[in-house]
Write a structure and sequence with these properties.
The complex is a heterodimer of chains A (about 425) and B (about 250).
Chain A (H helix, E strand, L loop, with lengths): L1 H15 L1 H8 L1 H17 L3 E6 L3 H7 L4 E5 L5 H8 L3 E6 L2 E6 L4 H66 L2 H40 L4 H31 L2 H5 L6 H30 L8 H23 L5 H21 L7 H7 L3 H15 L3 H25 L7
Parallel strand pairs in A: 1-2, 1-3
Antiparallel strand pairs in A: 3-4
Chain B lengths: L3 E12 L2 E12 L3 E5 L6 H9 L6 E6 L2 E2 L9 E4 L11 H11 L4 H14 L15 H13 L5 E5 L7 H16 L3 E5 L3 H6 L2 E6 L2 E6 L1 H8 L4 H18 L1
Parallel strand pairs in B: 3-8, 3-9, 6-7, 7-8
Antiparallel strand pairs in B: 1-2, 1-4, 4-5, 9-10
The chains are: A mainly alpha (about 425), B alpha/beta (about 250).
The complex binds adenosine-5'-triphosphate (ATP) and magnesium ion.
Keywords (chain B): ATP-binding, Nucleotide-binding
GO molecular function (chain B): ATP binding; ATP hydrolysis activity
Protein name (chain B): ABC transporter, ATP-binding protein
């Protein structure tokens, strides 16, 4: 009852503050759109690569839409790069490829690097595929022979069973007929499952191809992390500033001069701002899926759930941090300290490759768990079982911070 | 004793090195307007907050409605008006009143009725649906007073309730406070306005956290052999300073 009074108040205040509403709901869409186009453009950037005496087969695979090849007649990489303003220079001596990067533009360097690497992988793959194809043909002929054999066998069993059933039914022996019917079903089932397994084998062979030519964009792979970040950032800011206002205008201590429980105030905040966080999440997720045609592998409900938990952690963290600020300006100062570092641990840099002390820091960052879960759901189709631990940790963050907030309000009333 | 709404005993409190309250005793029976006067920074607000349980005291005990403070449930029987207005500016006056009415567990049917009554009392009926951000200082003060009255409490604790309110409305409010008193309610009021102090049934003069003098206005005037409470205020202050100087 009292909690709901607080919730209603939070809703009314938010709905009247059009600027804040716009910030919460439109700003993420705006930033996402901007990012979408920024990273799209990146992939059409072209690096220039000079080559000297390199096998045509290698040149062919490197020559992608991101790299243009220029042939030169000199092995002096340094000189040629400077002279022709190239991004890289590739030379070959027997089987040894040597590449020199200008590295004045790191993006172009990485374009060449990527092209070279994927090209060499492709080359290897081609040889592999020829081998596999031969193997597969052999395997398929074997399988076909096997299938024929099983089919013939099944056919024989089926006819045998069918006559037996007919006989049993004629005799009026219903029990035996049913038992035989079951056997019949099993016999046919085996045939269908054996066809299925045959299909599965051919799929794995092909998936090598798909992986090799896959070019998922930067935007797509980091989108889930950003979804989590936006919710975290805006909810942190809005809830923190609003509780701070409540403290500085004296309404918080006025509230505590009523019989309300401290926990009822916090719950009112959680429900009130949590509601807006849900709307924000639904809006951003639906927007990215429909407008940018992002392929969501996992369940959209898990995305919502994870984001909601992240929002609740941000909410309790915002309220907690606001107790250390005495003005809105001081609250803003906490953003580079508390919020921005989290994005680095949200998957932009692989945490596994970090120094161990950095990994330790990652594990106290709520966004690390949230973004990992989101990425797993969106790109790998992870289920509740896979991300359950992450979600539980988020719940843990929330519970601890909520307790701290409730205790922290003792400053204004001792009970 | 059921007839004493507030019993504070030997309440002491300090902030840092400053002794803000020094062994204050205060008893507020039913049906009385109790005035707290004293210079700025004397400790009046601190005493009020200690009585409400919003400030932890160093020593001493406070009982409100026979309950040792701090206590959450007792808050429903106390109407509190803080010295500085604590209102939700983006909400209308009616929404503010509704919120605090709900927090005070006023039943829904009674709430609409109470809002009309308290709004009429502070002359805000025509402005009820205006946002508080568009209110003048005096209007905000009146709304704060209305909020303190919303649950029809037995005990009212008002920290400078009439600051910024015009003389005519002030008269009206005091008339109303006296009416409430006649129904058995009690009020603890701080004020810097001496003619308001004269209207109290009982006064306590606090200075430097010490209860310098207390009694009915008439008794105080007699004790200090002066004609007005203002002169009591000044004379008591001079005597305290002289005493401190002698030490
Ligand atoms: N939170 C606090 N921290 C430190 N000192 C405080 C705090 N609150 C009050 N004080 C000090 O306690 C003293 C008494 O303050 P209080 O607000 O009770 O005065 P007051 O009698 O209500 O004055 P006024 O008539 O101006 O409202 C003041 O000197 C003030 O500086
Ligand atoms: Mg005061």
């Amino acid at each position: 009852m009292r909690t709901m009074a607080i919730v209603r108040r939070v809703f009314k205040q938010m709905l009247r503050d059009k600027r804040t509403l716009a910030l919460m709901f439109l700003a993420p869409l705006l930033i996402m759109t901007l990012m979408y186009f920024l990273f799209q453009n990146n992939t059409t950037q072209v690096a220039s690569l000079g080559v000297h005496h390199v096998d045509q087969s290698v040149v062919n695979v490197i020559d992608t839409k991101n790299v243009t090849i220029h042939h030169y007649d000199s092995s002096q990489a340094r000189k040629m790069i400077k002279q022709h303003d190239l991004d890289g220079y590739l030379t070959q001596k027997n089987g040894q490829l040597t590449i020199t990067y200008s590295n004045s533009n790191p993006t172009n360097t990485s374009l060449i690097k990527a092209s070279l690497q994927s090209g060499l992988v492709k080359l290897k793959m081609k040889t592999l595929v020829t081998v596999t194809k031969k193997q597969r043909a052999a395997l398929e002929s074997q399988q076909a022979a096997l299938k024929k054999l099983t089919a013939a066998q099944t056919q024989a069993t089926v006819t045998k069973l069918k006559t037996a059933i007919a006989q049993a039914q004629a005799r009026g022996d219903q029990a035996t007929a049913e038992k035989l019917q079951k056997q019949l079903k099993q016999a046919t089932a085996t045939t269908s499952s054996s066809t299925q397994s045959a299909k599965a084998t051919s799929y794995t062979t092909k998936s090598h191809y798909i992986y090799g030519s896959s070019d998922s964009t930067f935007f797509e792979s980091f989108l889930p992390a950003f979804l989590g970040f936006f919710v975290f950032f805006f909810v942190f800011l809005i809830s923190g500033v609003s509780l701070l206002n409540e403290r500085t205008t004296g309404t918080l201590s006025r509230l505590l001069a009523t019989p309300i429980r401290r926990s009822e105030i916090i719950m009112g905040y959680l429900i009130g701002y949590g509601g807006f966080a849900i709307i924000q999440t639904v809006l951003t997720v639906v927007f990215t899926i429909t407008v940018f045609k992002i392929h969501l592998v996992g369940s959209i409900w898990l995305v919502f759930l994870t984001n909601l938990l992240l929002a609740l952690v941000a909410l309790t963290l915002g309220i907690f941090i606001s107790t250390f600020a005495n003005s809105e300006f001081q609250m803003i100062q906490f953003i580079p300290l508390i919020v921005v570092p989290q994005i680095f641990f949200a998957g932009l840099v692989p945490v596994d490759g970090m120094a161990s002390w950095l990994q330790a820091i990652a594990h106290i960052m709520p966004l690390y768990y949230g973004a990992n879960a989101l990425t797993a759901v969106v790109t790998k189709g992870a289920g509740l079982g896979d991300i359950g631990v992450n979600l539980l940790i988020l719940v843990g963050f929330m519970v601890v911070l909520t307790m701290l907030n409730i205790v922290g309000m003792k400053r204004y009333r001792k009970v | 004793m059921a007839t004493d709404y507030v019993i504070a005993k030997q309440v002491s409190k300090h902030f840092g090195h400053q002794q803000v309250l020094n062994q204050i005793d205060l008893t507020l029976p039913a049906g009385m307007i109790y005035g707290l006067i004293g210079p700025s920074g004397a400790g009046k607000t601190t005493l009020i907050k200690s009585i409400l349980g919003m400030e932890a005291v160093d020593s001493g005990t406070v009982k409100v409605m026979d309950t040792v403070m701090p206590n959450r449930a007792v808050m429903a029987q106390v109407g509190y008006m803080a010295q500085s207005d604590a209102l939700y500016e983006t909400l209308t006056a009616r929404e503010n009143l509704t919120l605090f009415g709900q927090l005070m567990s006023v039943p829904k049917i009674k709430l609409a009725q109470m809002i009309d009554y308290v709004a009429g009392l502070v002359d805000l009926t025509s402005q009820l649906d205006k946002r508080v951000s568009g209110y003048s200082g005096g209007m905000k003060r009146r709304l704060s007073l209305a909020i303190a009255l919303i649950q029809d409490p037995q005990l009212l604790i008002l920290d400078e309730p009439t600051v910024g309110i015009d003389p005519e409305l002030r008269q009206q409010i005091w008339t109303e406070l006296n009416k409430l008193k006649d129904t058995g309610k009690s009020m603890l009021v701080t004020t810097h306005v001496m003619d308001e102090a004269e209207r109290c049934d009982y006064l306590m003069l606090i200075r430097h956290g010490i209860a310098l003098a207390e009694g009915t206005p008439a008794a105080l005037k007699q004790q200090y052999a002066v004609d007005t409470i203002e002169q009591v205020f000044l004379k008591a202050g001079r005597m305290q300073d002289a005493n401190d100087g002698n030490r």
